[in-house]
Structures are given as C-alpha cells and as structure tokens.
Amino acid sequence: MKSSDFIIEELYRNGTTKIFGYIGGMIAHLVDSIYKNPNVEMINTVTEQGAGFAAEGYARANDTFSVAIATSGPGATNLITPIANCYFDSTPVLFITGQVNTYEYRKYPNIRQNGFQETNIVDMVKPVTKYAKMITNVEDIKYEIQKALYTMQSGRKGPVLLDIPMDIQRLEVDEKTLKGFICPPKSEYQTNVEDVEKAIKTANRPLVLVGNGVSLANAKEELKVFLQKSKLPVVESLHGISSVEKYENNAGLIGTYGNRYGNLALADCDTLLVLGARLDIRQTGSDLSVFENKNIIQVDIDENELACDKLKKTVIKSDIKVFLKELNKFDFELNIDEWNEQICDWKCRYDDNSKHFSVANKFLTKIFENSKENDIFTSDVGQNQMWAAQSAKLKAGQKFLTSGGHGCMGFALPAAVGGGYNSRSIVITGDGGMQMNIQELATAVVEEVPVTVCILNNYYLGMVRQMQQLFYGKRYSATCLRRRRSCPADCKGPNKNCPPYEPDFVKLAESYGAHGIRVTEASEIAPALAQAKANKDAPTIIEFLIATDELVLPMVKSGNPMSEMILK
Length: 568
Hints:
alpha/beta; 3 domains; six-stranded parallel beta sheet
C-alpha cells in the first residue's frame, strides 16, 4: 500500500475520524488518501491557522486528540500559532506538514532554500512541541506515527509535529515489515494522600484551586465526589472553569481579572490545595506577600511545573485522577462552617449586581442562563474573555474553551467549528477578535455547524484600551476600530463626529450565508438567543452593542497583591 494510505489508516485505527486542514501541493497524497478512506473525512478550513484551532477545539470538546494537516512553506508556518496555543494549553494535536521531496531538500546549511516552499518547520516548532521530526525513511513511518500519538497523550499532554516529504508519502510500504513503537512502562505516581488529608483536617480556612489539569486528567467526577464529601470551598483558574459544575461553595474565577470574592478567598485561606494549576503570574500576581504564610500543596503531572520555586510549597507529582481517587478513600468531617459562611458573605456582597460588574457581564450572564446542558462555549481573548470567565456558571456537561497561556485572538470561531460536531457551540468574542479569523464562518456554513457567535462590539480593542484609559492618560493609540486617516491624532474617545463602524456584522453574516441579529437592549437578548438556537441550517451572529468605556473589573494592577483590586 502507498505510505500515505497507511498513515491515514493508522490514524483511523487509533480513533481519528476527522482531519482538519487546508490542501496544498505537498500534502496532495495525504488528502487523496483521506478521500479514498471511507472512515475518515477531511474538514477543509479557509486557512491553516483555522485548521489548527479547529483541531484544538475538537480535541478539547471531545476529551480526545485530533489531527491537523498543512502543506510546506507558508502552510506549515501558518500552523505555528495554533501549535504554540496547544503547547501552552496542553492540548494533544498531531500536526502533519508536507515537505518537498527529500532529494530536493537543501543539503547545505548555508543556503536558505533549494526546493520551492521548502521550510525547516521542525526546528521552528521544537520549542513549542513535545516532539517534532521530519521523516526521511519510509520504513520509519509506522514507528513515528505511533510514537507521536503516544507522546502527545502521555504525561502533560501537548502537540507534536511530523514533517513528511512528498516522496515519502508516495512510496509503497509493506505494513507487515514496518517496525512499531513500543510504549514505555506507565509512570508510577506519588500521592501522599495521608499528609494531604492531615493538612486539610487541621486547616481553619482551606481552599481548593482547580486548574486545567483536572479536565486533562478526565477527573471531573472524582473532583465532584471530593468536593461533595469535604464541602471545601473552591476557586478556579481560567482553564479550571469547565471542571466545576453547580457547586454551592464555588467562589469562581481568581487571578488578575478574577471575581472579587474569589481573590479574597485566595488571599485569606491558610491552606491551598492546587489541582493541576501552574500558579503563573496571572493567578498569583507579582506581589506574593499574601502567599507567604500559607500551606500550599501543588499536585501536577508535570515535574517541570512543580519545580518552579517562586512560592514555598509541598509538591506532589501525580495524575490528578489517580490522586483524587486515593484522597476520596478518606472521610472528611471538617469544622469549616464559619469559613464557608465568610466566603458566602463575600459572594452576597460582591455579586453580579454590584457596581463593579458591567453591562457586558449582565449580557453574558443571560447567555449562560439561556444555554442548555452539554453546550460548548469558546471564548476569544480580550475583555470578552474575562467578562465571560467572570460570568460563567456552567451546567452539566458544558465546557468553557479559551486560549489561556498563549492568548490568541481569533481562537474562538474556528475552535467552535471544531468543537461543534457533537455538541452545540457558542462563541463569545469581541469585534477585534472576530475579525482575526472571521473567514472560518464560511467553514461553519459549508460544514453545516450551527454555531452561535456572540460579538461584544465596543468599537475598540477593549483590553488594551482599558490599559490606555487607566494607565496611559487616555491616549487611545491604535485601539479604535472606527478610526479613519482623517481623524484627529489626539482623539480622547468617542464623540459625535466619529465615523461609522466597519464592518456591518449583520450584513457580513448574511454575505456568508449565515444569520445576523443586532442587540442593543437587555430585553432583546433572550429572543435573539432563542432565534439563534432555532437556526439549525447555518451559523448565527448576534452582535451586542456595548459602551466603549466598559471596563473589566475588578482588576489587579501589576505589582499589587491579589487582595488589592481596582474596583471602579
């Protein structure tokens, strides 16, 4: 059989039924092999970046791995951003790039290029992949495919890349003679659950911080059991939102743009159990004084994350699922009613009706309220991301997918297309982020994925504008999306002379064959969402017009501890 036929069949045997990509000359054999295989379909996106984000959305929505392909040269380099996004957010995606024939590939390091669209993509992506390899011997094809599939799903999950030259793809192989990859023995994990149990039982103000590791370990049920048994209060990182559903002692999002009550709980606790969160600067702030006297226990599968010594802590290298299963063997009768009451009091005082919550928060609260179980939310990056994270109250089976570590604008729409094959997907984005990859609306139309796209339109790149408003003397440079060349250089904000906003998102939706709705009042939200839900034939864009000066608050200013927040 042809090598490319074997590759696609081997991917199918390992669970692949969809491959996201954009065709090009150096993957023509692979695309043809997908066409010939009745069990695998190619999802042809509009850009390679869209393919990468769609593959990531599919993997995260379905708790599996996925595959994205692109041709050599610009096709391969267009994948670098989604590859990096998968790396920082620990998503297992196999990226396959085509390469020029091995006999065309440059043999001398001092020349830039020999073959047309020849690019050394392997060396480019090594810092942001778990494994990257160009296959130069067809006899290695089975070994490398199996190694890649194993590597991206073992330990801390993440992307891998295989670069396959054109001539390697078209060579004939005898499957029976191909050598395979032998998986190494499974890692043995420490749990130290006795010490953790003791620390929790002796604490006066214990708190659980849930990170992305819970979802990656498929440990949501084990976490649910633990929280129900212990009644411990819990807070979430940005990626931890999907792991906690309808729990009364949930204090929500923590971090730079975390909920006020969540950050107060984090600052005031005496014992902190960290489950699969890296404790990065957005979670702790740069002033670590509030963490000095805490008993911090960090559980993570990645020893490199545990090795970070900016905080004094006890570290446990373990799979979160394994750890929680062992911890759930204990009974927890804790005397923490007073502590839970304190957090409840903070939540009551600083709820979504308080002054620091914006109109955008209230819009998004209604969006979450009008959703149904198992819906997939994908959020873009910017103010819309933080408003959504602050407002998210997920129902059973729902997931909240966003670009966390890498912070990629343009992530949400293609990720929703990829995540929307088995569940209804809802995009939360801004007017700036939407235009980064708006062309993937065509993919949603072609694939008949009825995505609901909620655009929070404030006419600005809002998150940077917020910084300019608070810290740069209202010098709104390069953030106004209505600006014309003829506008005054020293504009301090919207006025009656502002030009109209472009594009018209409702008309743009219709030009793609999608539906378009504009919402200007809170009373219009529920009917618009109901109409979008009823549109089964094509995606729906709902444009929410919000004030240009809406801020994401509370906000922890750089250099301040988490307990000190800007509130207005």
